[in-house]
Design a protein that fits this description.
The radius of gyration is 15 Å and the shape is globular. It is mainly alpha-helical and 100 residues long. It contains three helices and no strands. Helix content is 52%, strand content 0%.
Length: 100
């Protein structure tokens, strides 16, 4: 069963449909490639999924979402920005704290 056949989870309700569609399409593509034992495409699509999730988190923090996902120039630096966001605005911030 693909995720697109499920109802939209409440957590994604604020995310524009275009980005939700990208997220579900990327997830379904990874799942299909994995099921077909196509490991390298699964890994490549994993990067795209991360870009979409980053766009969703960035939109949550900024309070506005772009029409489509945006690929950060440097994903590591882009994720480190979340470490500096006020915990009141971004309760998941602790998940982005550097370990070590």
């Amino acid at each position: 069963m693909s995720l697109s056949s499920l109802a939209t989870p409440a957590i994604l309700a604020a995310v524009p449909a275009s980005i939700r569609d990208e997220l579900l399409a990327a997830f379904n593509e990874i799942e299909r490639n994995y099921r077909e034992r196509r490991w390298e495409p699964s890994e490549l699509n994993g990067g795209k999924l991360c870009e979409i999730v980053h766009t969703i988190l960035r939109g949550f923090v900024d309070g506005k979402y772009p029409a489509h996902s945006v690929k950060p120039i440097n994903m590591v630096d882009a994720c480190r920005v979340f470490e500096k966001v006020d915990a009141a605005r971004f309760p998941l911030r602790s998940a982005f704290k550097s370990r070590g």
